[in-house]
Amino acid sequence: MKRYDCLLFDLDRTLWDVEKNQKEALRVLYSRYRLDRYCPDFELCFEYYEKSNSRLWEEYRDGKVTREVLRNTRFEEMLDQIGVHDLTLARQMGDDYVRLAPTFTNMIPHATEIARELSQRYPMYIVTNGFVETQHIKLRNCGLAPYFREIVCSEEAGANKPSPVIFEYALRKAGVPHTRAIMIGDDPETDILGAVRAEIDTVWFNPHHTPRTIDPTYEISTLPELLELL
Ligand SMILES: [Mg+2]
Fold first, then answer.
1. What is the CATH number of domain 6-16+107-229?
2. Residue 105 CA to ligand 1 centre (angstroms)
3. Cα–Cα 20 to 30 A to 180, which of 53, 96, 124, 134?
4. What pLDDT was estimated at residue 2?
């Protein structure tokens, strides 16, 4: 007998390659706004963005900042670092980025084929802290949309991962008890911890072999390993 009736997937960094896609989007903005005038080294400019962005995402996850603050402050801080103090430009870049980034389609290796294969055997849901409109555009553009029943976003569920609330919300949508679902995600602090709190089994996707801080039910370093488990 099959052990699970439903698969819950994280999207960013589990299926959709955030690192590659955000860098490509940033490169477009860097040339659109001629930022080379202030910072001739794109890599350096990107490093400033990344540092600010990852700190702000943690603050957003913990409910310390709103999504508007997250969207604009990362550009405000990046521009500050290269000596451009321009809030209007930061806001414009924030808006552009939100429109642009989800149109890039670099995927984590084998994501599309594994999603296609598993979707023939399981109902699948995305459970994400990302923004509703962004995640829908990403899924449509990268061709994953047909494989998922629904995208469960934290905004709609009223809580961010790792709150068990978003997982319980997803289970209600899927109509399965917690014992019959499994969460697959890359982030131990949100995906794994949150699912553990909701008493859902977990697969930790750990491509960089990071040491464990929490015990998942299973651990994999490549997506095709899912086919051996599920
Ligand atoms: Mg992730």
1. 3.40.50.1000
2. 16
3. 134
4. 65
C-alpha 203 to ligand 1 mean position (Å): 12
User: Which among 6, 14, 50 is positioned nearest to 220, based on CA atoms?
Assistant: 14
pLDDT beneath 50: ranges in the chain? none
Give the CA distances from residue 159 to residues 10, 67, 123, 214, in Å, rounded to whole numbers and listed in that order.
15, 13, 23, 21
Instruction: Tell me how far the alpha carbon of residue 4 lies from the centroid of ligand 1, in angstroms.
Output: 22
Whole-number Å distance, alpha carbon 184 to ligand 1 midpoint, is 9
CA of 152 to the centre of ligand 1 (A): 14
Superfamily covering domain 18-103? Putative phosphatase; domain 2 (1.10.150.240)
Q: Which residue has the tokens 């709150």?
A: 163
Which residues belong to the active site? Answer: 10
Closest by CA position to 161, among listed 189, 184, 124, 199: 189
Quick: pLDDT tens for 82-118.
Answer: 999 999 999 999 999 999 999 999 999 999 999 999 9
In this prediction the pTM is 0.91
In this structure, are residues 160 and 61 in contact, taking their beta carbons and an 8 Å threshold? yes
